[in-house]
Amino acid sequence: MSDLVSREAGTVAVRASALSKSFRMHLQGGLELPVVEGASFEVHAGECVVLGGPSGAGKSSILKMLYGNYAATGGEILIRHGEAMVDLVAASPRLVLAIRRETLGYVSQFLRTVPRVAAIDVVAEPLVARGIDAATARERAARTLERLNLPQRLWQLPPATFSGGEQQRVNIARGFITDHPVLLLDEPTASLDAANRRVVIEMIAQKKAQGVAQIGIFHDEEVREAVADRIIDVRGFGPARAA
Amino acid sequence: MTMLDETPLLSVAGLSRYYGERVGCRDVSFEVYPGEVLAIVGESGSGKTTLLNCISTRLEPSAGSVSYRMRDGESRDLYRMSEAERRLLMRTDWGFVHQNPADGLRMTVSAGANVGERLMAVGERHYGRIRDTATHWLSRVEIAADRIDDQPRAFSGGMRQRLQIARNLVTGPRLVFMDEPTGGLDVSVQARLLDLLRGLVNDLGLAAIVVTHDLAVARLLSHRMIVMKDGRVVEEGLTDRVLDDPQAPYTQLLVSSILQV
């Protein structure tokens, strides 16, 4: 399996070059809003890189471009997908979906719930999408939810009515359950208590040991200190703001 | 790493349809691949229904071509087939889910017969097997087995829509067209139907083309989307990219017009 190659320590998993993003707001008379300019960095298998900088500096936009959720205005994002380095910026929608299914995971801050789907199935879904049978997927989902201390009585319920912290744990379980070689983390610990924050820190460490490349945003200093191998200060990629 | 299946199931090239001087849709091209759900969104009058009718052989285009990869692997131009071939395709390999279930069902025969009829159209004759298959499909769409002999007239709107879906899926189609499949339903019924459709599409590996004006429906069901205005495609791409980072002025307007709850 090509995963073995991609997970050797030191292998480049993601390489962004001259990445830029600016929003053109057509409803505001075509106002141009630059948010990222010339972002270049590399992330290797087995390391966790944290995007740092004040809010509004473009961390979230960078993460969303890395997932293909925002269209980059310029530059390229090479990601190791199987044996090849593929440019996510130029990739067709179908290729982006294949990359997300097999290579690139994302743990967002908020859960977009699907009505009527039980929490355990929300968590198991990425495994089922990768061809794992439903029973095995549920079994692994149960273990992940257990680890994150989500009470078992909630597993069969749709997460729409859960508290923020409970929803976030469903989200984390869903994001961490696969063995994607690249994982993007958008403040995964924002609404967690101290005990569950520690669980997430452990899970990130475990992913590192498995050779997963992780890129994250963490406002919580304790978590950041615990997981970051490197911090990339995105202020270096801020657009030159002319007044 | 799985390879992308590079042969589309349906290819639309340069498709236009005029109503006299008026444009229904103009110069539309796209492809749909096996297992992929494509949403066509736009407001009333944007041309999305004209487009849907043209690609499903219900309305002859003024220009352009629509080709479909048959089960034997050969791609055929839909408008160069005989009428009989097109009808067979619609009865077997395709499904069409109408917004109004009454347009896709026979309201005065039983639920079981509505499902069984499509099976008989593909040559199934054994009564016991037809009834078993019908019962199975009713349960897949969450209709209780003891309703099999009731007529859809006696069903709620949501149940009728689920029955229409069962009727369409029973022949194992590879491509399903849906025209506002949740339109006209109560919100809670919509949610149930969407969840059901999502599960069925995933489990069966169906390709689907869903026409909707509801961006939430597009977000939940589709992989890719096409945004139409005045008969033209103004934007296309990955569904979450189009909705979270819309590029075209019209898409920005649509997305910003969604009411937040």
From TrEMBL, chain B:
Any one Gene Ontology BP term: organic phosphonate catabolic process
GO molecular-function term, one example from the UniProt record: ATP binding
SMART domains referenced in this protein's UniProt entry, alphabetically: AAA
Entries under InterPro entries matching the protein: AAA+_ATPase, ABC_transporter-like_ATP-bd, ABC_transporter-like_CS, P-loop_NTPase, PhnK
Residue intervals of the ABC transporter domain: 10-255
Pfam entry (one): ABC_tran
Keywords carried by this UniProt record: ATP-binding, Nucleotide-binding
Similarity comment: family membership: Belongs to the ABC transporter superfamily.
Family annotation (NCBIfam families): CP_lyasePhnK
Protein name, per record: Putative phosphonate transport system ATP-binding protein
